Amino acid sequence: MKILKHLPFLLLLPTLFGQPIRLLADDIQVAVAANFSAPMELIATEFEKATSHRALLTFGSTGKFYTQIQHGAPFEILLAADARTPEKLVAEGAALADSRFTYAIGRLVLWSLNPDLVDAQGAILAEGGFKHLAIASPRLAPYGAAAIETLTRLGLLEMVRSRFVQGENISQTYQFVASGNAELGFVAKSQVYTAGKLNKGSGWLVPAELHNPIRQDAVLLNRGKDNPAAASLMKYLTSDSARAVIEAYGYALPPVSPR
Amino acid sequence: MESILSPSDLGAITLTLKLASVTTLLLLLIGTPIAWWLARTTSLWRGPVSALVALPLVLPPTVLGFYLLVSLGPNGPLGQLTQALGLGLLPFTFAGLVVGSVLYSMPFVIQPLQNAFSVIGEGPLEAAATLRASPLDRFFTVVLPLARPGFLTAIILGFAHTVGEFGVVLMIGGNIPDETRVISVQIYDHVEALEYTQAHWLSAGMLLFSFLVLLLLYSFNPAKPPR
Question: CB pairs below 8 Å between A and B: how many?
């Protein structure tokens, strides 16, 4: 009975122990493009170990983040799926111009769950033999726009257009293919490659010259300008350990270190 | 009109109305017997069936959509069934959206019907039976007229709720023009693409529609003064 009387205080004890660390550590609100979710989770974990700052990650489509940031969303950093959105935010004064840099360059893969469907040259696109081709919405997602560019260069766009099913973002596009509902689709390399190899199914790594590079830029937003932890995360993204993670997930890296 | 709504907006509106009509009709056919049974049974199954019917009220549509996408897919149990029946796969088709909408709007049709049937009670039915009305006759000449407000509520709510559906369609639709791109998805697309003007027109239309529907509903079912 006696211990029960002190229960409220006992419950507060852990917060006392946690306090000294939390005083030095800050939280950073980070908006992360859906295609970069897996590597970013890893990077955030390593970042927290190294600095004890905690990156709170929100995943979604870059277009939605743009709208939310315009309307006062509390994000401090945006890791976009494109270069255009950070550029626009800088132009509108919502982000810091000199903070912008390319943290990863995306690659497109034509992918199927069926291990025998997609050949090494992507000839299946011309041959047919599929009912649905999943792409990310080209209006909303850079990976979708890159898929359209690729099909246009190959001269196949009109042929396959009627078989498109569109995901709102690249995660949903992946879902359509991974559940087998679409026989194949254009997804991000980061979604289907682990350690330089396809983790399942069959795929064609779309040659980089078939579409404009999918440059993914990071930018420090106005809300994060006075948070040293946010600046420190921006810097960490260009560190060797972060770059190694990014590369391991199938992204290319900008040739020269941005800073 | 053309300047305000693009052909693809109009396509989305037509498709949404078609989806809501087909769904409501199907739900009346499926829901009426279920509601009748729920209103009158004393079986132990009453609880579990009621809970199942009410599930879409509390489940996030994404849960329903996700399970539909997986189970209706080529590797899912329902997908294998529809393929074996020669129906092909349902995701990314209008028929798939109908299946999703029927599940999603089910409580909105069944619950008003069930309430209406419960209120009727045994009296009128027993009276009709003494006049030698057959069970079917009793249903059509006694139950249906007495339950008319319940049917109106069910139709209006079922239709309106399907028009407002978003999460399920997003998960299993694939955003195909004139097949699965309904108004709510079209609005979402406009907003994401920063086309706020178009988004405003469609959203305002939805707002007005929803208000009118509810106005209709509450005008048909005014609070009755105690007799």
Answer: 63
Query: Complex ipTM, two decimals?
Result: 0.75
E strand or H helix that includes residue A24: helix A7-24
Query: With an 8 Å Cβ cutoff, are A176 and B174 in contact?
Result: yes
Residue with the two structure tokens 């109305």: B17
In CATH terms, the fold of domain A26-105+214-248 is D-Maltodextrin-Binding Protein; domain 2 (3.40.190)
CATH number of A108-205: 3.40.190.10
Domain range annotation of chain A: 26-105+214-248, 108-205
Residues 6+ apart with CB under 8 A from B187: B199, B202, B203, B206
Euclidean distance between CA atoms A186 and A109, whole angstroms: 6
Q: Among B75, B179, B192, B195, which would you mutate to test the A interface (most chain A Cβ atoms within 10 Å of its Cβ)?
A: B192
Residue-range domains of chain B with CATH: 7-220 (1.10.3720.10)
Interface contact B92, partner A, CB < 8 A? yes
Beta carbons of B69 and A182 less than 8 Å apart: no
Q: What is the dihedral of CA B121, B25, B186, A137, to 10 degrees?
A: 110
pLDDT per position as a tens digit, A140-159: 888 999 999 999 999 999 99
Residue-wise pLDDT for A170-210, tens only, equals: 889 999 999 999 999 999 998 998 877 898 999 999 999 99
Among partner residues B76, B89, B189, which is closest to A137 by beta-carbon distance? B189
pLDDT in tens, B110-156: 999 999 999 988 888 888 888 888 888 888 888 888 999 999 999 99
Closest by Cβ to A181, choosing from B73, B188, B193: B73
Note the pTM of the prediction, 2 decimals. Answer: 0.79
B56 touches A at CB < 8 Å: no
Provide the CB-side half-sphere exposure for B75 (13 A, CA).
11
